[in-house]
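Sanity check. The docking grid for dihydroflavine-adenine dinucleotide depends on where the pocket ends up, so I'm generating a full predicted complex first rather than guessing from homology. Inputs follow.
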Amino acid sequence: GGAGVIRRLVPRLIGLAPVRASLTRGPLATAIVDRFVAGQTDADAVTVVAGLADLGLRATVDLLGEQVTRSEDAVATVEAYRRLLDLADRAGCACGLDVSVKLSAIGQAVPHDGRKLSYENAAEIAAGAAAVNATVTLDMEDHTTTDATLDTVVELRRDFPSVGAVLQAQLRRTEADCRDLAREGSRVRLCKGAYREPAAVVCQGRGAVSAAYARCLGILVAGPGYPMIATHDPALISVASGLIEQVGRASDSYEFQLLHGVRQAEQRRLAARGATVRVYVPYGPDSLPYLTRRLVERPANLLLAARAMGER
Ligand code: FDA
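Predicted complex below; grid placement will be based on this.
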């Protein structure tokens, strides 16, 4: 259908130099970045985290960047996360904070010893987080990395039991992964999945992905772990709320997660109902891959940004 065409077209358009230029410079670029990204620096991110805390919302902060191929760049990312945690601590908002980390930003894609390097780097970030009572969640990237990332979560959890995993409902394998991960103490973020994947590994179509998401919710909400329900989809938020009520889950035994700049009224509404709500706060200069995913999953996001630009 039309949405499928747009989904195929947008990444191609973004591949064209003039389109890339207009997305990285100029007023439309600024409007898009302002809507979805907290800012360029860790100070910007901490300001947003503090603002969320004033509204009764928690945060998971993500330093933008991915697919690093040199170990020096991976180390620089680790240091940046440690500075961020330190800054949040000094600002009094590190306790209960989460950081979202992409293994490809800390070495997973470095030739030869990427697997080991990304594990060691993640452990270093986890140690920095633990020191200020914060936690780490490993973002999930494309399906070629799922096994390595889930294995790394298991390894990290030996020393840092609060490390969270992300599962993507669009992957056919995910229901089985939900059963594996629905354990005592495990933190699992369930999202639809933002990567374009080969047909063989995914459920086809929005309806099928939503149905898979609902089944995964059933497994996670009924289990003894800590589900993190990451979606803006009103239908799925209400499925989750229904399941939570049915099982009689305590309000501190799960959370909703939404992206910075998306459905802010809903973020507040969920919190006002007594749910824990955590907002994913990306920051840093390397925003193009993140923003591309936001535009591909919902081309209307471009209109929102364009409108915000018009209102200035
Ligand atoms: P989707 O985008 O399909 O939207 C469903 C409905 O929600 C829309 O029809 C509309 O009603 C409403 N809606 C959505 N956006 C709106 C807006 N701007 N304004 C008003 N209404 C809006 N992916 C991944 O692969 N790995 C990861 O680690 C993560 N991590 C992650 C963390 C968090 C906290 C979130 C929220 C998401 C992720 N994702 C992710 C991204 C995820 O996989 C997915 O691509 C997006 O969340 C989009 O899917 P939704 O479920 O939000 O619904």
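Relevant for the grid: The pocket of dihydroflavine-adenine dinucleotide is lined by residues 139-140, 166, 168, 191-195, 230-234, 257-259, 262-263, 280, 297-298, 301, 304 (CB under 6 Å).
Also worth noting: Strands lie at 58-63, 98-101, 135-138, 165-168, 187-191, 226-230, 255-259, 277-283.
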